[in-house]
Amino acid sequence: MLSGDGNTIAGFAQGAFNRTPTTWDGPTLVGTLLDPPNGEIEGEFNGISDDGSVLLGSWGMGELTFEAAKITNGVVEKIGEGSLIPGWGGNPMDIADNGTIVGFDILLGARRAWIQPQGQGDLVEFKSYIQSLGAVVPAGVNLEVCQAISTDGRTIIGHSSGSGAWIVTLEYACNGADLAEPFGELNFDDVISFLVAFGAMDATADLAEPFGEWNFDDVISFLTAFGAGCP
Prior knowledge:
Layout: E1 8-14, E2 19-25, E3 31-33, E4 42-48, E5 54-60, E6 67-72, E7 75-78, E8 89-95, E9 101-107, E10 110-116, E11 124-125, H1 126-132, E12 145-149, E13 155-160, E14 164-169, H2 188-199, H3 216-228
Antiparallel strand pairs: 1-2, 2-3, 4-5, 5-6, 6-7, 8-9, 9-10, 10-11, 12-13, 13-14
């Protein structure tokens, strides 16, 4: 895995039997074991944020025994409870700019895809999550492994045994207020985007009838949608 600026590489170092989570400095290729100098922690890094500040991995040592975890600016913490299903191994794979993390649990040959919206709270079964947003999963398509998520958090790809690769595009219920990246999150950037569009009489700010006119009703519609928040 490689950060967007190329300055951080994440993966694992292979010993005689086990893997140890390891990072490398992009320019110099100097490596650092998660547990220097002996590399006694078993596991590997699976993902990295674009800016290199968040590392995603699964490893075993103490209470983080083969559970999904992340390192944010050097601070280690479990992701949710470490796995979607107690006793299964949690594997975080990728993170969006809004903090949303996707991954999967594994136990022997069984796998179950999950998501942690906004990077907060419990892990949520991926199929149930997208169905709660109105998605219809075609018959015969299993959602076993979330492999990667786009930087805006809206597009997720994965694969499953038997049904092959799949892609999911999320449409968050932020109504007309979600106007700026990162999508799926409402903040001051959305307010600025609305004001700029309103001043330019752009269609993105035309939120209320009569359409084709930009007036106080559009402002009220934006504020109502903004106040409702995102799921």
